[in-house]
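Need tokens for this chain, all 140 residues.
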Amino acid sequence: MNEFFTRDKANEGVEVPLYLPTGAKSKHWLKLLGVDSGAYTLATARMRQALQGIQAEADKIEDKEARFVFVNGKQEEWKNRVLSACISAWSFEAECTEAEKLKFLEAAPQIANIVDTFIADRRLFFGMGQTNSKVSQEAK
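Here are the structure tokens for all 140 residues:
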């Protein structure tokens, strides 16, 4: 039965190297928690609750385009909040706070995509899907 347990590994996290938009490897990394982690579970619960309130607010906006822009912006904001909850540490000089993580994910959407994809792949938390012990974003 134990071979099916994923929560502990998801809570431990994995260091993921970061690559520049040019494809060159940087000296930086993120430590990511998986979708089975307590942080992810709590963040998604908060997101679901918030989005219900956001929908109620959106229903008061009569202009369809304005309503769409409002809802889409709030959904993107909450998606980044969930992703930021899964960043437990990083190599940047800035402290790894909620505000700094959100600022980083908003300014670097390619990193948000990497985080989103990585945290959902449970195999990466068990060392599967890799050719060596380091996790890589490089195309193979």
